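To make this tangible, this section ends with a sequence with its structure tokens:
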Amino acid sequence: MPEVFTTKNRKKEFDKVFSEKIVSFFLSEGFERHTKTSKRLFKILGNGLSVFIFFEYKTFGYGYYDMTITYFDDEIGDVYNDQYLVIAKTKIQPIEGNNAEELNSSVDLWLKHVNSEIMPFIENHTTHKSILESDEFYISKTRENEIIQVLKKKSIKAH
């Protein structure tokens, strides 16, 4: 029976599969790693628009890795000050496992899900106009008017 993770072992194993499997997959899709050690990947989409994928460990239950798709625009702000444009509402299955074997298996299934569901979602939302016309995004209520104005302005500019 495989050994159950300690916190240190889980982190070490996730770092390994993140680099070997997850980063490799996203690099092949045109993404880049934000920093050498971060769990953030991004892709520049043009016209000041970029999409980031954030990975975060959540301690609920046995613990799992969650992924968030967040779009940024140069006029609104950037990843460093957390001034995002929109966050995708799309449901993304978590990555979880109590040992190395389960974690690797979960990542393999997760990559299939990302390839069939998440990549097409991102490919369908690569412009300000496609984001503006979609109801699949959360927009911060405190900055909603500013964000919608930028989306409208850049939707018109693109044509």
User: Anything to note?
Assistant: The longest strand covers residues 49-58. The radius of gyration is 17 Å. DSSP finds four helices and six strands in the chain. Residues 73 and 139 are 13 Å apart (CA to CA).
